[in-house]
Amino acid sequence: MRYLILFLLWPLGASAQLAPQEVSNLGFKMGFGFYSFQSGELVNPRPMLGYTAGFNVHSDFTKMKKLYYQAGLDFTLRGGNFANPEKIDSALNRSYGKITLVTVDFPVSVLIPLKREKKAESPMIKVGLTPSILLRSVVYVGPDRIPLNSQIYQQTWESLPLKQVEFLSHVGYQKKVAEVGYYVGLNFGVNNLNDGKFKIDGIYPATGTGKRISTWSIEAVMLF
User: Cis peptide leading into 205, omega within 30 of 0?
Assistant: First the structure.
């Protein structure tokens, strides 16, 4: 895993060696999104509000090109809500109602300018792939969404049995004017986070069916 992180950080590290006139190709971004799980192993999913912030490095927008490239490093709070506490008797606080994920993300994108002659100020279609490394995961139970922290799970409730890396495809619209811009896009999990061993005893609806676990989200981000 250490070598994977170093490999993914390489584009950002390399950008630090650019000549001074290239420094403007570095940027900062922050925003929010509606994040959720796809239906499968985890049932009755609903979106939750999450947040993302990070840095990116991109091609020289001062040159007119057919395609530009962009790589980034983001920290994201995401996951999803579930309607289970409202649908199932949760008097024992065992119906899962929320799962949060803290991830470090490495988006790699191709930017397609819609008006090439405007260069940096052209509206752009952004498509790409984001390797997302899971740093922490928590499941919350009951109508009050409290962390699952019974005597049985006292040492394990912060570490759900999920794969450590999710690959997210993304597509969206990006527009930048002068030093400020925005991006609105959709992320969709490509791989299955369930290796067939996902099961948490004592929560409802029951887990351990072996079905798919993956995520999706809609994000709105300010670019600086």
Answer: yes
Cβ distance 99 to 134 under 8 Å?
A: no
* Most confidently modeled range among 2-11, 20-29, 193-202: 193-202
Residue extents of the structural domains in the chain: 26-98+109-167+178-223
DSSP 73-110: EEEEEEEEEESHHHHS--TTS-BEEEEEEEEEE--EEE
Residues in Cβ contact with 53 at an 8 Å cutoff, skipping those fewer than 6 apart: 28, 29, 30, 31, 74, 75
Q: Which of 74, 89, 193 is nearest to 141 (CA)?
A: 89
107 C-beta neighbours (distance < 10 Å), count:
23
What pTM did the predictor assign? 0.84
Residue indicated by tokens 């005893």:
201
User: Using CB atoms within 10 A of its CB, is residue 63 exposed (0-12), middle (13-18) or buried (19+)?
Assistant: exposed
The band of 217, judged by pLDDT with boundaries at 50, 70 and 90, is very high
Residue 1 confidence (pLDDT) above 80? no
Give the C-alpha separation, 206 to 31, whole Å: 34
Give the helix ranges, DSSP H, for the chain: 2-15, 84-87
Rounded-to-integer distance, Cα 133 and Cα 103, Å: 5
